[in-house]
Amino acid sequence: MNNHLIPTPIVDKNGKHTTVFKKDMKSGTATASLPAPLGLSSHSNGAPKQVELNTDEMDAAFSAAPTYRKSAVVTARLSKAGEALVTTLANGTVETSRTLESDQYIVTNPGGEEYAIAPEKFASRYEDIGDGNYRAIGKAKIIPNDTGGDVDIMAPWGELQHGKSDCVFASGVDEDGNPTTDRYIIGGEEFLETYELFNAKDQRLP
Which whole number is the average pLDDT over 108-113? Predict the structure, then answer.
């Protein structure tokens, strides 16, 4: 995947809603743009930029951002106390590494990415469809990484999370459709493969 691909909801000439990345968009395509770039400072020494996702500026950006839902079916299992979990993206990036408590849910995406979720969050984001498979029911507000390079954030679980230049920033969504303070990174390829634009009226766009 090319760097700096920014997810953008569009409506094509047939009225179909989908998501494209700006570098892949053809001229003349009607777009519903993501929020304006955040103007985060550039990388001065090639090191990942440290980004704080819980600021007034980011609150406003997430509030204005489009809402997506995770459309993929995943598998999940319970963790053991002291189990080590390394989340590795499809492009080989080690996103985060952490030591788990017992009875956290380890979710595996279709592409093989694994990550852990606390039981209460898992119950609000996934429904059991049998045979160890779960369908996502949670939603997220999405804004692009416009820093021009790799980024690090302090994840909600208290450890650094790393994102490549094509990653996106995500915020959980409450029952009223507003962004929560549960904010994290999603890899670019993982976002494209597992998320779709959400429509509250239709539940999901065609």
Answer: 85
